[in-house]
């Protein structure tokens, strides 16, 4: 016989290698099993394999929820349609006892956006709702009908508004996680009605008010996380009355007062974080004996004073001890060396002391902490030399901070044994001597901070072995010699500060290789020479460039305009020549430009006025000339310094520059006309002069002498000469008559001179 096709609910594959439940059974047994299943589905009682009455209700509520989703980048809800039974939709789990009723909706980490539609509040069989790590917005909808809800997880979204009071109706709630949202307002007072709650997570919101004392009614609480809100007031005494409490996180609020004494009875407490508050008082000396199960203790950024309790060394499972930024005094107890599980110890920013061998013994004791990865002792009152036992610390140590103390002497060479270090911070001490014997051995270093000490000698070439270096701070020491070109091996370098030393030689081009990620380069206040390498143009991520107070010469590379992330350029007090490159106008993010005290020439590029973020421009004491631009940064006289450039003129009136010489169009035409006429007239005069000279050279010598003598002596003539000259006083030669006689003209034949004479 041919069997009818079973409905989908009658055959369920079994996990593992067994396949379907009846796959390997004998035929007879299989037929009997199929018959039994058919009877259950179709023949007996009122049971049905088709949709139960409640099924369509839950499906419709889910579809309403889907319609409110505005973005589903991973197509998580693509199966949510009528062609697929809703119990098989992604993230949906239905009840076996009540077929078709949704008991769990898990859509965590699906990248969903939109509102959480109130229809979810009608899934009355729902036990778990997990929408965490998405991008839901809006307010948390009313869920007061979900009396069976046990786990509500909507953390890491962008939910706003207040925590609804109606959540108190979810009386079976065991886990409430609303952390990492934008919720405001106070924690509801009726939260104490959630008597089954074991985990309360409200961290990273903007909650205000106080910690409600009604929490004491939730006797089963194991985790309370209210960190990083704006809660005020004191920690209520009731918070120490939870017998099963394992984690209490209240850090990052505005809490004050002291840690309640009742809290020191929590023998199961593993995590205690009250850091970044205003809590104070002296820590009890038996602190470590009353909280023996602690693995994490964070009291940082508070007002605790007094000594560090030696009893902390009795908490054998303690892995994290964070006591930084308090007012703790005295010595670091050597008992901390008994913490075999300790991997993080931060005691910086206190008033802890170490002056002699005995007070430095804790370093030797900490060598027993073989899991120690972070040791931060900076900004205390530690004095004297760093003990040689520093080299015996855990090989797993990654961060060592001794900065801002009063340390002196040389660094022990066995510091090089700590080859697991990624961060070494010794800045702002009085350490001296060479670093050559140990620094090149720390091949895993990412950050080397030795600035503001008295280190001497050259920067060793072995620093090029530290190929994982990201930041190098060696400023304010007494290093000398050249900058090692081996630094070019540090291809991951982001920050380089070698300022305020006595370094000489050229700037090595190898450091500025193609693909460099350098964002800050400070080489100021040294004795560096030569030109500025054009390879700076490879630093496409460079933000700050400081080359002040050296002996750099040559021109400013125009290729610098390719470093388009630059915000600060300081090149003052060098011997730079040439003009200001026009290419600097490409630096659209530029804030500060200082070329003062050089020998620059040329004019100020008007394109600098297009740099809208430029708020400090210093070009003083150069040889720049021409008109000062009037726009952009040049409009703000407090942002511009141009002193010591005698050739500048114009600009904003407050700059007090002399006016630029300007002429009208008519004067300009006259100017050019004069420029043309002067050489033309000169040339013409020269030609005429030559002509007359040549003409004069052709006049007879005798005539010239006669004319010359005529000008000096009048010739003697007789009456006969006069009669002959006037043709015997002929009337035609008569010029005129007067009362004194007559005037005749005539020509004396001796020199052929025509004369007039008076005859009385």
TrEMBL record:
SMART domains documented for this protein: LRR_TYP
Protein's UniProt keywords contain Kinase: yes
EC number: 2.7.11.1
Signal peptide: none
Membrane-protein topology: Single-pass membrane protein
InterPro entries: Leu-rich_rpt (IPR001611), Leu-rich_rpt_typical-subtyp (IPR003591), LRR_dom_sf (IPR032675), LRR_N_plant-typ (IPR013210), LRR_R13L4/SHOC2-like (IPR055414)
Family matches, as Pfam families: LRR_1, LRR_14, LRR_8, LRRNT_2
Transmembrane regions listed in the UniProt entry: 670-694
Location in or out of the cell: Cell membrane
MF GO annotations: ATP binding; protein serine/threonine kinase activity
Domain Disease resistance R13L4/SHOC-2-like LRR stretches: 363-499
Ranges where the Leucine-rich repeat-containing N-terminal plant-type domain occurs: 56-95
Xref: PANTHER family: INACTIVE LEUCINE-RICH REPEAT RECEPTOR KINASE XIAO-RELATED, LEUCINE-RICH REPEAT RECEPTOR-LIKE PROTEIN KINASE FAMILY PROTEIN-RELATED
Protein name per Swiss-Prot or TrEMBL: non-specific serine/threonine protein kinase
Organism: Hordeum vulgare subsp. vulgare (Domesticated barley)
């Amino acid at each position: 016989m041919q069997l009818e096709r079973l409905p989908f609910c009658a055959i369920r594959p079994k996990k593992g290698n067994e396949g379907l439940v009846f796959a390997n059974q004998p035929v007879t047994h299989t037929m009997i099993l199929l018959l039994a299943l058919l009877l259950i589905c179709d023949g007996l009682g009122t049971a049905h394999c088709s949709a139960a009455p409640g099924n369509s209700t839950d499906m419709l509520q889910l579809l309403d929820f889907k319609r409110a989703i505005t973005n589903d980048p991973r197509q998580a809800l693509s199966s949510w349609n009528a062609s697929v039974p809703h119990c098989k939709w992604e993230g949906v789990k239905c009840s076996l006892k009540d077929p078709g009723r949704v008991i769990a909706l898990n859509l965590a980490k699906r990248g969903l956006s939109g509102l959480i539609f109130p229809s979810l509040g009608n899934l009355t069989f729902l036990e778990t709702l997990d929408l965490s790590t998405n991008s839901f917005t809006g307010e948390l909808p009313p869920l007061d009908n979900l009396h069976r809800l046990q786990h509500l997880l909507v953390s890491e979204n962008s939910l706003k508004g207040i925590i609804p009071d109606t959540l108190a109706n979810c009386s079976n709630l065991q886990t409430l996680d609303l952390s990492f949202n934008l919720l405001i307002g106070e924690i509801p007072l009726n939260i104490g009605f959630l008597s089954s709650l074991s985990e309360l997570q409200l961290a990273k919101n903007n909650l205000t008010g106080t910690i409600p004392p009604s929490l004491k009614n939730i006797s089963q609480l194991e985790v309370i996380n209210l960190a990083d809100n704006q809660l005020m007031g004191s920690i209520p005494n009731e918070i120490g009355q939870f017998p099963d409490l394992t984690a209490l996180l209240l850090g990052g609020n505005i809490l004050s007062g002291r840690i309640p004494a009742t809290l020191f009875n929590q023998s199961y407490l593993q995590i205690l974080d009250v850091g970044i508050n205003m809590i104070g008082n002296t820590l009890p000396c038996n602190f470590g004996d009353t909280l023996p199960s602690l693995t994490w203790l964070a009291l940082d950024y508070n007002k605790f004073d007094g000594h560090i309790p030696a009893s902390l060394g009795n908490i054998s499972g303690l892995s994290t001890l964070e006591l930084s930024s308090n007012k703790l005094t005295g010595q670091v107890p050597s008992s901390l060396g008994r913490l075999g599980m300790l991997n993080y110890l931060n005691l910086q920013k206190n008033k802890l002391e170490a002056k002699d061998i005995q007070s430095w013994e804790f370093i030797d004791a900490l060598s027993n902490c073989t899991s120690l990865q972070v040791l931060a002792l900076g900004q205390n009152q530690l004095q004297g030399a760093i003990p040689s036992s520093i080299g015996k610390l855990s090989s797993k140590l990654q961060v060592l901070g001794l900065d801002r103390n009063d340390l002196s002497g040389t660094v022990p060479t066995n510091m090089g044994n700590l080859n697991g270090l990624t961060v070494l911070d010794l800045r702002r001490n009085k350490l001296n001597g060479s670093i050559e014997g140990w620094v090149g051995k720390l091949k895993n270093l990412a950050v080397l901070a030795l600035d503001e000490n008295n280190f001497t000698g050259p920067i060793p070439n072995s620093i090029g072995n530290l190929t994982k270096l990201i930041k190098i701070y060696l400023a304010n020491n007494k290093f000398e010699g050249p900058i090692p070109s081996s630094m070019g091996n540090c291809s991951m370098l982001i920050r380089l500060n070698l300022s305020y030393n006595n370094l000489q030689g050229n700037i090595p081009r190898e450091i500025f290789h193609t693909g460099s990620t350098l964002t800050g380069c400070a080489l100021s206040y040294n004795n560096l020479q030569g030109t500025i390498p054009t390879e700076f143009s490879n630093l496409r991520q460079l933000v700050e460039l400081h080359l002040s107070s050296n002996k750099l010469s040559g021109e400013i590379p125009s290729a610098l305009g390719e470093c388009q992330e630059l915000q600060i350029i300081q090149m003052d007090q060098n011997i730079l020549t040439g003009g200001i490159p026009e290419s600097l106008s490409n630096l659209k993010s530029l804030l500060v430009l200082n070329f003062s005290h050089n020998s620059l020439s040329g004019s100020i590029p008007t394109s600098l006025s297009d740099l809208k973020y430029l708020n400090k421009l210093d070009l003083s004491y150069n040889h720049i000339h021409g008109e000062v631009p009037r726009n952009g940064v040049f409009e703000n006289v407090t942002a511009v310094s141009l002193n010591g450039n005698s050739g500048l003129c114009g600009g904003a009136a407050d700059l007090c520059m002399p006016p630029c010489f300007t002429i009208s169009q008519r004067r300009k035409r006259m100017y050019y006309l004069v420029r043309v006429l002067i050489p033309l007239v000169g040339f013409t005069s020269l030609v005429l002069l030559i002509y007359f000279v040549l003409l004069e050279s052709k006049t007879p010598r005798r005539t010239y002498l006669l004319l010359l003598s005529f000008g000096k002596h009048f010739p003697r003539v007789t009456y006969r000469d006069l009669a002959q000259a006037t043709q015997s006083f002929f009337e035609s030669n008569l010029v005129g008559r007067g009362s004194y006689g007559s005037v005749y003209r005539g020509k004396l034949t001796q020199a052929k001179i025509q004369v007039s004479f008076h005859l009385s």
